[in-house]
Design goal:
Shape: rod-shaped
Radius of gyration: 51 Å
Largest sheet: 4 strands, antiparallel
Number of helices: 3
CATH topology of the domain at 98-186: Gyrase A, domain 2
């Protein structure tokens, strides 16, 4: 009877199976790597997704840095705006003080230079809250009209209105003069704003 030892054959077959499985695994891995390398922009590939994630993170970081720089700029702008507002308030107060200081002097100067020489004489001057009343005597009505036009041309007086005129006779000198009164608005006049009338609410009928 012939006996055949099959152990070496079985061992060789097992080794061959293991070698085949290892070869298939290695080839599959290489094929997968090649596939991912050939199609890097495939939206379903791991490489493409990884690149997209890195790109989005970089874009996020860049935008955060840009936003932070804008915040610093916004803070500086707000500080400058506040400083400008404070300066504007101070300049406004200074201008008001200048008007209060120089306004009356300029008003008197404008009135004096508007008086027709040797034809008109002022006897009274009253001013209250920007309303000016002038009283005087003139040679004739034309002189009064000339005085009114001169006042309108100044920067201190506006809206000149004739209130009254009255003839004044001086028998000793055989002269007929004109007493007059004018009402004017000065630079200090401010129109009072009237509050709107209140509307009555209609009651609903039950």
């Amino acid at each position: 009877m012939i006996r055949v030892n099959l152990l070496p054959y079985r061992a060789a077959r097992i080794k061959e199976n293991i070698r085949r499985q290892v070869t298939i695994y290695v080839l599959s891995t290489v094929f997968l790597i090649l596939l991912l390398g050939i199609f890097p922009y495939n939206p379903y590939s791991y490489v493409a997704l990884n690149k997209e994630i890195k790109s989005l993170r970089q874009d996020r970081d860049d935008r955060r840095k840009e936003l932070a720089s804008y915040r610093d700029t916004t803070v500086k702008i707000r500080t400058l705006e506040k400083t400008k507002a404070d300066i504007d308030v101070k300049l406004g107060k200074i201008n008001e003080l200048k008007k209060i200081k120089t306004g009356p002097v300029r008003l008197l100067d404008d009135i004096a230079t508007s008086v027709p020489k040797d034809k008109l004489w002022l006897t009274a001057l009253k001013e209250n809250k920007g309303m000016l009343v002038l009283e005087g005597t003139a040679m004739d009505n034309e002189t009064v009209a000339d005085f009114m036009n001169r006042l309108k041309d100044t920067q201190s007086v506006r809206a000149v209105e004739l209130v009254r005129t009255k003839q004044k006779a001086i028998k000793e000198l055989n002269l007929n003069l004109k007493n007059f009164a004018l009402k004017c608005q000065t630079y200090a006049f401010k129109q009072e704003q009237k509050a709107p009338p209140k509307t009555k609410k209609k009651r609903r009928r039950r």
